[in-house]
Amino acid sequence: MKHMNSEVKEERTSNKKRIDLFLVPIVLIAAFLNLFKIWTDEYANAYYTAAVKSMLQSFHNFFYASFDPGGYVTIDKPPVVFWIQTISAKIFGFHGWSVILPQALAGIGSVLLLYVLVKRTFGVWAGRFAALAMALTPIVPAVSRTNNIDSMLVFTLLVATWMVFRAVRTAKFGWVLAAFAMIGVAFNMKMLQAYMVLPAFYVFYVVATKITWKKKIAFLTTATALMLAVSVSWAVVVDSTSADKRPYMGSSQTNSVLELAFGYNGINRLTGNTSVTGSSHKQPAQTQQQTASSETKQTSNSSSDSSQSSNQRKSSSSQKMQAPGGGNQNGMFNTGNPGPFRLFQKGLSDQISWLLPFVIFSIVGLFAGVKFKGPYTTKQKESLFWLAWLLPVAVFFSIAGFFHQYYLIMLAPPIAAFAGAGAVALWSMYKQRNGWKSWLLPGGILTTAALQVYIMSPYVSSIGVAPIAGVGALGVILALVLAVRKERKNSLTNYLGAAVLVVLLAMPAYWAMTPIIYGGNSMLPAAGPDSSSGMGGPPSTATNSKQSGFNGMQPPGSSSGNSSSNNQMQLPSGSSNGGQLQMPGGSSNNGQMQPPSGSSNSGQMQMPNSTLSKASSSKRKSGGMNAEVNKKLLNYLTKNNTGEKYLFATTDSTSAAPYIIETGKPVMAMGGFSGSDPILTVSKLKAMIKKGEVKYFYLSGMGKGGQSDVITWIKENSKEIPSSKWQSTSLSSQQGPSGNGTLYEITLK
Question: What is the pTM for the complete model shown?
Answer without folding.
Answer: 0.82
